[in-house]
Amino acid sequence: MGWLADSFQWGQKTFPTQGDGAVAHLLYKMIFLTALPLFWIMISASRGGHWGAWMPSSISAFEGTCVSIPCRFDFPDELRPAVVHGVWYFNSPYPKNYPPVVFKSRTQVVHESFQGRSRLLGDLGLRNCTLLLSNLSPELGGKYYFRGDLGGYNQYTFSEHSVLDIINTPSIVVPPEVVAGTEVEVSCMVPDNCPELHPELSWLGHEGLGEPAVLGRLREDEGTWVQVSLLHFVPTREANGHRLGCQSFPNTSLQFEGYASLNVKYPPVIVEVNSSVEAIEGSHVSLLCGADSNPPPLLTWMRDGAVLQEAVAESLSLELDEVTPAEDGVYACLAENAYGQDNRTVELSVMYAPWKPTVNGTVVAVEGETVSILCSTQSNPDPIITIFKEKQILATVIYESELQLELPAVTPEDDGEYWCVAENQYGQRATAFNLSVEFAPVILLESHCAAARDTVQCLCVVKANPEPTVAFELPSRNVTVNETEREFVYSERSGLLLSSILTLRGQAQAPPRVICTSRNLYGTKSLELPFQGAHRLMWAKIGPVGAVVAFAILIAIVCYITQTRRKKNVTESPSFSAGDTPPVLFSSDFRISGAPEKYESERRLGSERRLLGLRGEPPELDLSYSHSDLGKRPTKDSYTLTEELAEYAEIRVK
Q: Which of 143, 302, 493, 567 sits between 20 and 30 A of 641, alpha carbons compared?
């Protein structure tokens, strides 16, 4: 059917029928097509006539109704028959094939299938062969041929024929593309070729779409008629797949319904996507994105502009195995088709333990300078960062990625090893770093000289950074290295402390003074070393015999004092001279006032004992020595004493 064509053809010319709207279009066609048969008759008459017929090539009607097949024929004018007869055949134009007779004007004999169903509406004398068929049933659908009978041999079967289509549903015409948001026109069309029963139309399922507009009865290209109803509306995405219906002959026993589903095209809308996701490092993560669109969208997972995965589908899942902190960030899901696009983002937060903290390297500072130490790390969530020194907390921050320690004026006590520790609920990491404070030498108060028999040893303990040089100044000369077998200097460094020992052998008496001088690039310090235990040198000069004599005198004095006190009824305890107390140098309980570290002091004292050649307590040279058996103990000369002291002065550096 060509009633919706944009033009129609008249002779060799084609005339456009596009107007301001579909209604004007159809009205123009109705006017022209109604006049078409009259033009055809006039043209045929002017040509003098010939054998020919006109009828629609196809026509349709509802089952149970009727149909009028319009028909006109012509023959040569010179025949001038007195009576014109005609015959309608079904499915074949040749009488010798004995096709079923639909109608026959001469005898009124028809095939049983058409008995009571067919009659001629036209006047054959006026060359009108229009046929009416009633009570249509599906078996009556087919080809219908007309044969003109003018008498005698003047009979002619026209090749033109009409195909009858028996239908039972209205025709709903939907535009080939329906886009959401754009107005569309849907039409319902039914045949109206039964003069005895004209159809009426009503829409089904149009609620919410729009109000229908009945256009009316329209004639088609070949003279057939249709009843048309139009429905205008603006579809939405929700209307996709909506079932729209049209009903003919409502409220009668002859109700026919037809339906069409709307295929509404619309851009994608993402309807499903993960919210923000938290995952522990090493776990599996699945990111899901689903979109609604028609046609189906192209879904794409992206991160930082890079395409990770894409597919034409309604949903797309991005699988991440054993996630790492590097995969932490914002992921985007993009959905697009020919009608638009949509996108959503999801943030993936990978939870992990702190990384090993980084610090600004080993710091070297001069005493009194300001030192700033930065410790930083990375973790999720942010960690607690703490800086320790010898288990003492110096600074801490909570839920920060870095910590800065400020030391406004560093001192030698700030020198040492520090630890930066970062921790959260997923783990702990630590980094050690050193602060080296450089300062001028300081000679500690524990520096002194001690005498034992004919040997004098002087200890000079210096605290400095960088390592200083140490020299001992004697009345006659300076000693920095071994000069003779009887004079030598040995030094050992432990941390910031440098212990230097001067050993003088074969000394009949202690030198009047010994000065220790230490220097580095930050300054020079000197100190005269005090003597401790000078009485020991005196005992060494007296010797064993003198010791016995002195002991006997001392006993006599004690006895005298005792008798005197008894007479006075006063009980007194014997006392000893202060010189019997062992030198502080050899006391294991000796502590340096203001020592920077306990462990450093202990190591230093151990080193001093080794340097001084002492194992445990030093040998007592006081009164207890006189209790030994001198007859069995050989007298040690100066040579033997030197060997013994040399054994005690052995230095072993590990």
A: 493
